[in-house]
Amino acid sequence: MKDLAKLILVLATAFASTFLIANLTGVLTIEQSKLWLQSAQDLSPLLVGSLVILLLFSDLFVAVPTLTITILSGYFLGFPYGGISAIAGMFLAGIAGYAISSRYGDVLFSFIVRDEQRRIEAKETFQQYGFVMILMSRAVPIFPEVSACLAGITGMSFSRFLTAWLLSSVPYALIASYAGSVSSLDNPMPAIYTTIGLTAVLWGSWFVFRRYHQTQQA
Question: Do 48 and 75 meet the contact criterion of CB atoms below 8 Å apart?
Fold first, then answer.
């Protein structure tokens, strides 16, 4: 578990650094994303949907506020089109993360953990708990992308990864985009309540899973 945690820390640090750089340079901030979506709305709903997909896909390379963009997607496109656009963007980000990591991730893992047997044990650990980790990954910013990369690096089957990724992403995108569709500048409370509620439910799920895991180990 220690070696898997080391790999998670390296990946999370890499994604977090892109978020810091983006904010320091003013690229892909919440305000910038909102401005782009507002400008796109004046031209075409299709352009708004394409921009949402692009922003959420880019989350794999430059960390963006996924929940905020998903809520904005519902706000600008309405429901269900905002949800569909968000699902498409998350889907592409997950598939790309898995594919790139399957191809090149073992090089990084071999550099971090030199011992082959320890790498095998770390991969077996993720195979055991990875499905649940992906399911609940949206409780923590950056962790969805980390979990997609972990799935590729550790050789999780694509069908298993895709099932967990869709079970994690689809309800999340639909709920958040619906909240955005019924919110407005005068009444932002649905979006605020949804943000709080989703975070609480996902963190609660993590807590239950950890307690269950600790009980099983004991």
Answer: no
- pLDDT digits 0-9 by tens, 102-152: 999 989 998 898 888 999 998 998 988 899 889 888 888 889 999 999 999
Return the SS3 of 17.
Answer: helix
CA-to-CA distance for 90 and 52, rounded, in angstroms?
Answer: 10
Contacts of 81 (CB under 8 A, 6+ apart): 45, 49
For residue 119, count CB atoms less than 10 angstroms from its CB and return exposed for 0-12, middle for 13-18, buried for 19 or more: buried
Structure tokens at 96: 């790309």
Rounded CA gap, 81 and 102, in Å? 32
- The percent of residues above 90 in pLDDT, for the chain, comes to 43
Only one residue has tokens 């998670």, namely 8
d(CA 82, CA 45): 10
Q: How many CA atoms lie within 13 A of 216 on its CB side?
A: 7
pTM: 0.86
Q: What is the DSSP string of 122-186?
A: HHHHHHHHHHHHHHTGGGSTTHHHHHHHHHHHTT--HHHHHHHHHHHHHHHHHHHHHHHHT--SS
Alpha helices in 113-142 (DSSP H): 116-135
